[in-house]
Design brief:
Radius of gyration: 18 Å
Structural class: mainly alpha
Number of strands: 0
Oligomer: single chain
Strand content: under 5%
Distance between the termini: 11 Å
Number of helices: 15
Number of domains: 1
Largest sheet: none
């Protein structure tokens, strides 16, 4: 049963990674597996059998989410862009109370609120006009193994930090659409260097983030709260404001996303 739960959570994280503006790290926090993921990767050899089993469960789910739902999500973003993005905005908003509880631990220190503001500013700057920057990179010219490896490292940092969208980073680098296409067509030549960069970047970043979370838990979670809250802006920027009947359908999608995440993020469900 535990395997199935972790597998399904991995699928949710994998799907979140594919959505521009959404964050796999945010989804992991909402689902209650973020700290475990950091510890399992950063301290893998301390108890490698236990950590390997957990990472295998979540990893298989994430891989399933990427491979199986890349086509579905690509189609949904194409035919129902407002509803799809508002669904994920609802998911993000539904998870904010969970993150707020972790960042305050029952008390709010005003001096730590500055970290929320810093997180907000960072995400806003990173997500500023992503559509404009997409034209800076030519997919054919960016097929170099080295550049794809570097892009993978950049994406890994975004994956580890909640609120920073890995897909948004690919969009900024001009590689989002070609990467989704590569996943759909199983283009191994393209995906291998990108995936290797993600692996190296993840291994390097997780130990740093885990150490900071242990030493400065409240400040770090306040910063992450700013990241996650700020991530609503780039998600919204991708499609803009709906009109006509799309207003109603987008609001319904938002409410569905919010309610579902509020339900599954309850402690008794997660455990």
């Amino acid at each position: 049963m535990k395997f199935l739960v972790n597998y399904l959570k991995g699928i949710a994280v994998g799907i979140a990674v594919l959505v521009p503006g959404a964050s796999g790290g945010t989804m992991a926090i909402i689902l209650g597996i973020y700290d475990d993921l950091l510890h399992s990767i950063g301290s893998f050899f301390e108890n490698w059998k236990k950590h390997f089993l957990f990472l295998l469960q979540v990893g298989l789910g994430g891989l399933t989410g990427l491979l199986v739902f890349s086509g579905v999500l690509s189609s949904a973003l194409k035919h129902f862009p407002f509803e799809t993005q508002f669904l994920f905005m609802g998911v993000i908003c539904g998870g904010i109370p969970v993150l707020y509880k972790k960042s305050t631990e029952g008390k709010v220190e005003l001096k730590n609120l500055i970290f929320v503001i810093i997180g907000l500013i960072i995400v806003i700057l990173l997500g500023k006009d992503p559509a404009a920057t997409e034209t800076l990179a030519n997919p054919e010219g960016m097929a170099s193994l080295l550049l794809l490896f570097i892009a993978g490292i950049v994406m890994a940092v975004a994956l580890v930090l909640p609120g920073i969208s890995g897909s948004l980073m690919l969009l900024i680098l001009g590689l989002f659409h070609i990467t989704v296409s590569a996943i759909e067509t199983r283009n191994i030549t393209f995906l291998m260097p990108l995936g290797l960069g993600v692996l190296v970047g993840t291994l390097a970043t997780t130990r740093i983030i885990e150490a900071l979370l242990k030493k400065y838990p409240n400040k770090m979670y306040m910063l992450i709260l700013g990241f996650v809250t700020g991530s609503l802006i780039p998600v919204f920027q991708v499609v803009g404001l709906p009109s006509g009947i799309k207003i109603l359908t987008s609001l319904i999608a938002f409410v569905v996303g919010f309610i579902v995440i509020r339900f599954i993020s309850k402690k008794d469900v997660l455990d």
